[in-house]
Design brief:
The protein is built from five helices and 25 strands. It has 417 residues and is mainly beta.
Amino acid sequence: MVDVRFLERRLASGVTARVVRLEPGGFRVLPYFTQDAPLDETRLAVILAEARLGQPVVPVPPAVRRMAPRDLDGSHRIAARADARSGVACAPLRLFRTVAAGLAPGEILTNASYFLFLAPEVAGPFDAYGDPIGLTLADGVVETPPQIPRSCLLIGDAGPEIRRIGFAHAEIRTVQGLPFSPHPFGPATQVAAGTAFALFHGSAGGLTPVAEGLWDVAFVGRHAVALSQGGGLSIPRAGCVLRCASRSEAEAVAAGPLTYSLPALQQGIQSGPLIVEDGQTMEAGRNVFVEELLTDDAPRPDSVCVSPHDWRADWHRTRAARLSAGITRDGRLFFCAVEGTSSFFRDGTAQGATLHDLAQLMIEEGAAQAIHLDGGGSTQVFCHGGGALIAPRDVHHGMPDSPAQFDRPLPLGLVLS
């Protein structure tokens, strides 16, 4: 059983908020974006995504985003979109209220991390609304690799931990067992075959470096979506590009799923920023938003926008619903969810916590380390049977009834048990 406590807390900013504190024995990651979603949930996800983006949206099942070797034609083939002219691709998204029906008694389902959500994040040909940003590690399998070196919530052989992991930490192997070396964080210094590129890891303008005669294979998560010769291939935000010496090698590489290994880890998601370290807030003396590239003002080795785009990187101004995970000095994991509104809320005064409030709350609850796990309209906590432990409050100002509240469909969750 998860230990659940409901609190009415006066936050550091002076606002009183409803808080649910959850102390589980552990968690597991559920990557819904790798599975087909029910048709009714897909319809709702498309409606809400179109309201958010102001563009047509096309649902794309996971199988459509995979290529067989016979599909490779040497061009920038796009498997991520059913038809590039039809609209923005949308990955499978689920309604947590419905998913919670499948929980075991005593389990809790929460949101987990960031996902591609705004128009600048889905401008690439292989990116889809709903793709996770950064690491997704479920039962020892990395479904999407880490990207920017940003904080992760992990469970490994030594128990729960919070630490920064980037793309360069992953060990990458093809289905044949062929290793590829992740490019370091920064501009392109390696362009040879055998290199794996990710955004901000050897990319320029979001593309792989030019290399005449070599072949690139783009992967969304673990599966190939495109092949091209000579470089200049768009790099998926939820994947990478592998550089091969020949077309035959590229076709072989594209034939099966990639393996991204992070030894001694079983579960993990990437979010951020780190808000508490050694029992102290991260506000003083360091700019954690720049360290974790959570702002477009941060120096970065590529011109493409960082994700999440336009994230409100401040400690005291932005108030919203929040979710945080903390680890005590004796290694116990706990979560705090603060009830509030979406950060996009416009129909009155925003409710919930600032990041300063959240950090101080986690310290008061005993955190030696704590990480922000997303907030606003994504903040959801459900129990077995679909009961909401805090009120989900997403808003869609593209809808005619903008003050209405919605459950935001999400691509992955944490099951606390």
